[in-house]
Design brief:
The complex is a heteropentamer, with two copies of chain A, one copy of chain C, one copy of chain D and one copy of chain E. Chain A contains nine helices and ten strands. By secondary structure, chain A is an alpha/beta fold. Chain A has one domain: Rossmann fold (3-Layer(aba) Sandwich), CATH 3.40.50. In chain A, strands 6-7-8-3-9-10 form a six-stranded mixed β-sheet, sandwiched between helices. Chain A has a four-stranded antiparallel β-sheet with strand order 2-1-4-5, covered by helices on one side. Chain C is an all-alpha fold. Chain C has eight helices and no strands. Chain D is mostly helical. Chain D has one domain: MetI-like (MetI-like fold, Orthogonal Bundle). Helix content of chain D is 83%, strand content 0%. Chain D has eight helices and no strands. Chain E has a five-stranded mixed β-sheet with strand order 4-1-5-12-6. Helix content of chain E is 37%, strand content 28%. Chain E is α/β, with parallel strands linked by helices. Chain E starts with a helix and ends in an 8-residue tail after the last helix. Chain E contains nine helices and twelve strands. The chains are: A alpha/beta, C mainly alpha, D mainly alpha, E alpha/beta. Chains in contact: A-C, B-D, C-D, C-E, D-E. Chains C and D meet through α2, α3, α6 and α8 of C and α2, α3 and α8 of D. The complex binds adenosine-5'-triphosphate (2 copies) and magnesium ion (2 copies). The site of one magnesium ion has 4 residues of chain B, from α1. Chain D: One of its GO terms (cellular component) is ATP-binding cassette (ABC) transporter complex. Chain D: It is a multi-pass membrane protein. Chain D: This is Polar amino acid transport system permease protein.
Amino acid sequence: MSLIAITEVKKRFGDNEVLKGISIDVAPGEVVAIIGKSGSGKSTLLRCINGLETIDEGSIVVAGAQFLPDEVHLKALRLKVGMIFQQFNLFPHLTAGGNVMLSQMVVKKTPKKDAEAVARKMLDRVGLAHKFDALPDELSGGQQQRVAIARALAMQPIALLCDEITSALDPELVAEVLAVVKELAAEGMTLVMVTHEMRFARDVCSRVVFMHQGRVHEIGAPEDVFSNPRTPELRQFLGVQ
Amino acid sequence: MSLIAITEVKKRFGDNEVLKGISIDVAPGEVVAIIGKSGSGKSTLLRCINGLETIDEGSIVVAGAQFLPDEVHLKALRLKVGMIFQQFNLFPHLTAGGNVMLSQMVVKKTPKKDAEAVARKMLDRVGLAHKFDALPDELSGGQQQRVAIARALAMQPIALLCDEITSALDPELVAEVLAVVKELAAEGMTLVMVTHEMRFARDVCSRVVFMHQGRVHEIGAPEDVFSNPRTPELRQFLGVQ
Amino acid sequence: MTYQFDFSWLIGSLPVLLKGIRITAQLILIGAVFGVALGIACAWVRALGPKWLKPVVATYVELIRNTPFLIQLFFIFFGLPSLGIRMSELTAANLAMIVNLGAYSCEIIRAGIQATPRGQFEAGASLAMTPFQAFWHVVLVPALQRIWPALSSQIVIVMLGSAVVSQIAAEDLTFAANFIQSRNFRAFETYIVSTLIYLALAILLRQLLAGLGGMLFPRKASR
Amino acid sequence: MTEFSFWDILRNLLLAARWTVVLSLVSFIGGGIVGAALLFLRIGGRRGMQFLSRGYIQLFQGTPLLMQLFLAFFGLGLFGIDVPAWLAACVALILWTAAFLAEIWRGCVESIAKGQWEASASLGMGYLQQMRYVILPQALKVAVPPTVGFSVQVVKGTALTSIIGFVELSKAGSIVTNATFQPFTVYGLVALIYFALCWPLSKSSQLLERKLNVAHRNH
Amino acid sequence: DALSDIAARGTVRIAVPQDFPPFGSVGADMTPQGYDVDIANLIGEKLGATVEIVPVTSANRIPYLQTNKVDLVISSLGKNPDREKVIDFSEAYAPFYNGVFAPADVAVAKAEDLAGKTVGVTRGAIEDLELTKVVPASVEIKRYEDNNGTISAFLSGQVEVIATGNVVAAAILEKNPPKRPELKFLIKNSPCYIGMNKEQPALMAKINGIIAAARSDGALNAISQKWLKVDLPAEL
Ligand SMILES: Nc1ncnc2c1ncn2[C@@H]1O[C@H](COP(=O)(O)OP(=O)(O)OP(=O)(O)O)[C@@H](O)[C@H]1O
Ligand SMILES: Nc1ncnc2c1ncn2[C@@H]1O[C@H](COP(=O)(O)OP(=O)(O)OP(=O)(O)O)[C@@H](O)[C@H]1O
Ligand SMILES: [Mg+2]
Ligand SMILES: [Mg+2]
């Protein structure tokens, strides 16, 4: 059974139809890479899965529960699916530890002590146990992004959505973030990630989705997609003649 | 005889000695690339040459005239040496033409008509004759940077300092700016440029300076520096083992 | 100049002055705490609150910002009783200050909220927070930090503006000054002294607010 | 004793509002000129001048306008300078307005990116040239909304000149109240007239701000 | 000196109240009118000088005089030793009985009855100074900036009891207010004097002469009749 079932999803911004009927099923433990040109709708798709945008048609079912845009359903959905952003979006007024603790305490009403224990564990998992008391400003971009991952993990989601999480990083910092993601994948976390790191997508992902103009243009195992692009659009995108 | 003679220059910000005794001679018509890690003092060096920072020790002599930090000497220095910045720093309230005309009229008291003629010539030289009346806001980053070059050229400097002038540009716009610089070099302009474009440095420059921790760590012809890095620091910086 | 300055009255008038200082301090303390709280509530309404409340808050803010504090004070003290709402002059002064600061701080805080990157709000949402939780825990503190200097200035301005509450017999520092000079006729000396006290209070208040800001908000790492 | 009709009240208040308007205009224009001078001293002057202008701003922003008015009127008189109420009101309001405008404008000048100073310096311009041709034209644009916004404070500040016997709108309000015993009507009208004077100013300040922000976001 | 200054100038500047009917208030065209205004005009006439009327409040009338912004204060000014240290007073020119007023249903007959009550007065007025002396400590005195504040506070019910002049209360009554101030007891008979700067014997003599003449030729009585509706009391 699929963990995330996306069926014929359409999304318009005014007259601009950004998603033109997307269907993807993600099985538990799968790591799906979404690739495509700028403006093809990748971010919009992830945002719809997380309920940050409402969809106009189609359905999104996560772990058997249909997504509806009211507060109770949204909360339930977001407890299941975590999201990590390109711009990290750490809370600047809280320490790394505070960032990881906040939503546990506020949303799940976890007692402070337990939340702190979880936070320490999660920061350790991303290799930042020693930065518990550092403010975001005192961290490098790579470290900030790893804190953001720890923050999402602390909510114990069953899947993680990652939107170009290394694009805002200096080249030398990309590796440390990807290493963490790779480990998560190895541990069996379900991941849907928009990425420009083709190498990484090929090595780590179980499936690759190529989006083009609001549609799933090609989908398949990474070997197939990267070695045998069938459409001229994908070929052009990958830069192979 | 050297056009720019930098001798044992030291510069401190508080306790932080950023330049620890720099000596470089630049001959007329030379194109010098300065490379090095972030924080190694490259920008600070350029800013000292242009008198935007005062130096603590050593001397900087441009075209035979010693640099002293009073307004008369500063003005004389800056008439000889133009500077172009990473962030373009165009004057947003003036058109492209106005940007190129302003300093001629204000500093050199050139009559408006002559200044306009020079401005048109310079904008033409950077391929933007048709953008004379455009405001900076209406130009792409690459175009803005080319206007900045035209603006500096309009003062008829004997040398140009360029501080990472392509770093703030989207990749597709880098080429158009570098093309202009290449042409300037071919025409015999003396250039000192901080750059991350190794390929460009290798192709266009006559000498490459590798700065490390406030010192000139290696200096030489591009072939030598890039093909035969002698120090481990340069090797690491260039990413060769 | 024939006028002879005479500050001998100062000793005898000290209790009156001290009481005036106490009342002024008390007014600004209560005014600032509740005024800023009201401002936060209004800013929330304008940013995220229910639709029907927005025009109400907008009208309130515009009315207050475009009429003199003195007139607002007269309305509360002399006007409201005709609707059967009666209060002591101190309560009226406090209320007027809260209402006044509430409107100004609403606008200031709203500007701080608007400058918050959208991503902050979305990060909160994606961690399953409700809009209110995201506002309260994620958006508010950085927004307050951003506008703290502006808010501090406004609080000082309201403190100085409170000089007019003496008009409704609230016994603040200006009242003390007027009271003393109505007895000793040493108007200039009295006003110079009270002006200096106001200056000291303003400087002190600014320092206090700066200190409070340092306590409330994490220091940015210097880069 | 004379009876006041509603129209008498309104007419008298409106007549007094003329003085509020005149006083506001004079304070604002005068304050602008003095404020500009202060601004130059504050950011470009010599050390001593910077210190003085900072002290000035501290003093006028740190004491109630009420006290300033009183001291300007009676204090100057003490030194044998005979100032009529309208002059004292203008002087105090101008000095007070100048202190605030200088601070507002300083913020605007400082909001201009450092790169603008550096670019113009590297083109050989001197301090005054940079100010005149590069910084001020940009700062002026940024300064328009907060300046218009502050004009509202000036209009409201004129209410306090009643303390030195200047009969403007507020004072007329209390006088008329005392002759009619209708505080609710009179103060209601007074508030309305102030609102009618101030609201267009606040509103245009907001609109200008929005317009300039949009222009900023274009790039 | 002040008298020759006035003569040289040709105008005499006189401070009058603007918020204190019937001594000084405004007509429908905002011109000052009242007992004090008529006295000011009378004095101007006798001095042979144009009168420049300067409206003041009880809070600022003395500073006006001290800074030479006015030559005379005719502003229902009461005399007491403290004040006499700072300025000089002429002969009395108007009667003034100040008392304690309240609506009919408030039971007060003497100062002691005020215990525990709140009384409104105008700060710095003579009734403020006198009341402060005579009432028990448990009385709360609310001191308003000007008469306007005191009267508004009474009419809006912010205070139940006020201390003011009998004629002031009468003027209020005349307007049929929602609350009717009735005399409970008199505090003091404190006639009004004209205030002027110290050490001006020539001016003082001149003013006293004018007052004496007005008293004898009935001019003063006429003003009293006009604004107070009674004859000038004998003790004046
Ligand atoms: N909130 C919005 N309102 C209007 N249009 C939007 C909005 N968000 C996205 N769009 C439009 O939707 C289209 C797809 O945007 P989206 O961000 O999903 O693309 P993307 O594939 O993530 O691109 P990129 O690689 O640049 O991030 C674009 O044309 C964009 O302009
Ligand atoms: N105005 C300043 N005040 C204090 N320290 C400064 C200042 N400008 C630069 N520095 C410090 O000087 C050092 C060198 O900075 P500089 O900008 O010259 O480096 P750079 O080589 O140009 O780096 P990048 O490649 O990042 O531009 C850095 O450590 C920086 O923090
Ligand atoms: Mg995207
Ligand atoms: Mg640099």
